[in-house]
Input
Amino acid sequence: MQFYKNGFRGGNPDIKPAAPNRRNRGINEPLPEKVDVLIAGTGPAGLCLAAQLSQFPEIETMIIERMPSNIIKGKADGINTRTMEMFQAFGFADQVKRETYWVNQTAFWMPDPANPERIKRVGRVQDVADDSSEMPHILINQARMHQLFLDVMKNSPSRLEPDYGWEVVNVTVDPTTEDYPVTVTLKDATGINWWATRTVRANYVVGCDGAHSAVRKSIGGQLHGDAAHQGWGVMDILANTDFPDIRQKCLISSAKEGNVLILPREGGYIFRMYVELDKLAPDEKIAQRKLNQDDIIAAANRIIKPYSIDVKEVVWWSIYEIGHSITDRFDDVPEGEDRNPRVFTAGDACHTHSPKAGQGMNVSMQDTFNLGWKLVHVLQGRADASLLRTYSRERLTEAKRLVETDHKWARVMSAPTTEAERNGTEEPRIIRQFKENLEFTGGNAVKYDQSQITGAGTHEALASKLEIGRRFHSAPVVRVADAKQMQLGHVAEADARWRIYAFAGKADGSDAGSAIHKLADWLETNPSSPVVKHTRKGEDIDAVIDFRAVFQQTFDQLAYENLPSLLKPKTGKLGLQDHEKTFCVDHKGLGDIYDMRGIDRDRGCMVVVRPDQYVAHVLPLDGFAELSSFFAGILR
Output
């Protein structure tokens, strides 16, 4: 984290200087008549988007929520490694790591062949594969995660906060105008304003308002899917038990009583149980069974025999049915119509599934992390509005993958065990499926297809383990200026900037005339350079494209004073020099980034990374024309 860029300020550096002319917020303050972006819903998807947009006070953002405040407990709790990488960009990954439960191992329990009425442990699997990510898989109260985003918003230049107590009634789009073409009708949800309605006009609306989304319904979207006709109970509890793996994630299958998923939670005492309940008839709803928390506890104790759970406090509980559904599009543009979208849906508003794969909250946030930087580019006039068409294309593909995988996983979990699985002659399907799913459940299976923002794989062999379209997989480096060991990917912030990581070839040092020097000089001065073409007058040279370099020598073998000026740029109103742009391989045993990510040692390469941390292109260090052409297809 860098601060004091524009002069010394005491206090908490996370609290950024407030932008002028912010609107007053509060229960008695009027709602704005016009906004650039209106976000409906303060769940994970809505808050992730609002936290991004809050960093740009010139973009008038409004986020509404029908509830009177943030939730306190319940709902989702799993954060995968890919989302943790995203949290790093928002600046609160370290806090999350300190507070949360880390899922290190998953234990599997099945009926004991010698006594099928009792369960026994049949295997353990490492939950996060080695070098799949530098981040852990963690479990956290969703309300706490919400608060971390709310803090980012409140500490931002725009001092953004939700407008609680308002819900969307209707959304209409006027395609004949560019002047705030979306009209949103809001209704007071608290009764304080006697169910009053207000209208707000917006340039863009994003519906993050859940499975019953009014935004989705307003644009003609429908959820299509099916139900597994299976009841499940979930509860967060404080309890004592003689079950030995209670502080490990456990998947437990009994012979006749169903399944339990145990998820230890933050703080060392609380844990969550997902408990399989009754099979439902095709036309039956779980509510008709009138089950309660005692039924969940009783079912759990039947499943985990010979062990038992003595519940001291039920923190939260719910009973639900498994269902899987998805919309046919994520925006307001009907099939066959050629125009740019104005209304979007994200999260549960456009895809629903069972909670046991731990993906819902993660995929919801990744939806809006994908959308946020695109809205910033368009609203700042840096990109044509056609860029927004890529949101539905990219995220619909991933939502389909999510629903299909989760559909399969839910059925594997609910399927009875076979004799071969119970007697140990065959690895249980649930373990096989769990291993197959590890990349997916970590959030690392996402791969965006070639498009205007994801280049062709012509030069992909130069960085063979950084696949174009997949997330930039960080690795250890040492920062040259201060010899600090760190992760290269951690330089990226949720700031809508592109990154170019230039990896030097073996013979390339910090001296003038090297390939890195030639690239940096071209980027800084040539009229064809995307840095020159797309950086506006008066902006810092890295305002849009953040250039960094990695060398193969150790930090003490590089002449820092000879580095190109683009790697030591002067930025901010004081023109202070940035010393954090140059890195070298880690020489203290954590790993060599060239080996770990398949970087060509002889030739080096450029890796272009999108603002949402996905690899957009791999090019040779002298691929000036291709680099210029790529950015010309995106930025103005």
